[in-house]
Design a protein that fits this description.
It contains 1 helix and 7 strands, in the order E-E-E-E-E-E-E-H. It has 105 residues and is mainly beta. A hairpin with a 3-residue loop joins strand 6 and strand 7.
């Protein structure tokens, strides 16, 4: 099978909060992360629908104090979790993700 991803994913577990546009949130763990997006482990409650845009708040990040939030869109749902692509991604966001990926190597 041919790999379709543009960015290499790194296996990394971080605590994140998914904040929904209609209100409410869910705390989950990432399973992998890349410059282009992330995959979070399955949720206990109802997952968001494919195409939903939400905010991903990173709660525990090595070498970073406080939270950092990025916008993402749900791309795929599996039995194991949710695949999301980052949207509205700027230079500061790129640096933030690069720092996480470098610290996990």
């Amino acid at each position: 099978m041919t790999e379709k991803r543009r960015h290499k994913r790194s296996s990394i577990q971080l605590d994140v909060e998914l904040v929904y546009p209609e209100g409410g949130s869910s705390r989950v763990k990432t399973r992998d992360l890349s410059i282009g997006g992330l995959f979070v482990e399955a949720m206990r409650n109802q997952p968001p629908k494919i195409g939903t845009s939400l905010t991903v708040s990173f709660l525990s990040v090595p070498h970073h104090s406080g939270t950092y939030s990025l916008r993402a869109r749900v791309q795929r749902l599996t039995d194991n979790g949710i695949a999301m692509t980052f949207i509205d991604f700027g230079l500061d966001d790129l640096r933030f993700i690069e720092t996480i990926l470098a610290s996990s190597s």
